[in-house]
Amino acid sequence: MLACIDWHPHAPLEPLNLDWLARAGVEVAVLRLDLIDPLISGNKWFKLTEHLAAARQLGAEGLISLGGAHSNHLHALAAAGKRFGFPCVGLLRGHPVQTPTVRDLLDFGMELHWLGYGGYRARHAPDFWAPWRRRYPHLHGVPEGGGGLKGARGCAVLPGSVREQLPALGWDDYHGWWLAAGTGTTLAGLVLAEAGQRPVYGALAVPADHGVASLVATILEEGGAVGSAFELIDASRGGFAKVDPQLQDFIARSEQQGGVPLEPLYTGKALLALWERVSAGRFAPGTRLVFVHTGGLQGRRGFAP
Ligand SMILES: *Cc1c(COP(=O)(O)O)cnc(C)c1O
User: How confident is the model over 115-155, as pLDDT tens digits?
Assistant: First the structure.
């Protein structure tokens, strides 16, 4: 039931030991959102929390949302539905396919509807939700990916979690955040929470012309941001979900040396973009960064050779 969700997961903060970081004198700690739970993983849980709270307040019994056949968002939602026992419905892009993600959604008990491509493109139309609301009056609708100000606010708890873990790491403070950005919602949550204290670097998993900057700006404005220091860096390497051999090599080497599992769409590209910046000498020796591991490892099963 939605009423009894009171879960504050722990994301471990771990040092990342890589030779190129050591050479540059840059220290990185990874906030492992991929390790919050055996079933529920990544930033998508945090982006859901305020939507869950809104649903509860409205007296809804469960949630309905949309995504693709590898969606980390639908996966986190369905996993939460299974864990906490609330109903959820997923509206999927395209035509029925079996992916590891889709199999999990069904195992978790999510009810699926395939919208085709045209049907999915209509998701921003004003009358899109009306029939679904009639069909599922007891469910609360969540925008694609759990975005918007609510999604961002759910991520604003992350700095507190880092603060608590600094002593164990031997750090008195840190200089900034580095994370993968898709819609920029998670980044916006950090920017809101930081209120200009530390810069937030977003490594874009989508090409720079996808409007992320304006999505972030909208959230920050709605959230009443003060002193928002952030930078968006193109890390997409030719497009969302484009994977090249250099990226694959880099991920394999980083996983082996650093012991942190990565996937190619978000976290792998984000770390590679950090490598580029560190190699270019753009972070002074002594810089300490928190790299947010945004999860997504469930989705990489769809990419396994
Ligand atoms: C969705 C996702 C992101 C992007 O999050 P935004 O809040 O949309 O920027 C980053 N990493 C992973 C693994 C994701 O699943």
Answer: 999 999 999 999 999 999 999 999 999 999 889 999 999 99
Q: What is the pTM of this model?
A: 0.96
Q: What is the pLDDT of residues 184-205, one digit of tens each?
A: 999 999 999 999 999 999 999 9
> Does the Cβ of 81 fall within 6 Å of ligand 1?
no
Burial 165-188 (b: 16+ CB within 10 A, else e): bbeebebeebebbbbbbbbbbbbb
* First CA to last CA distance, the chain: 39
The pick from 32, 72, 177, 191 for probing ligand 1's pocket by mutation, whose C-beta has the most ligand atoms within 8 angstroms, reads 72
Q: Is the CB of 101 under 6 A from ligand 1?
A: no
Sequence-distant contacts of 126-132: CB under 8 A, at least 24 apart = 132/64, 132/89, 132/91
The one-letter amino acid at 18: L
Domains of the chain are: 13-38+150-303 (3.40.50.1100), 43-146 (3.40.50.1100)
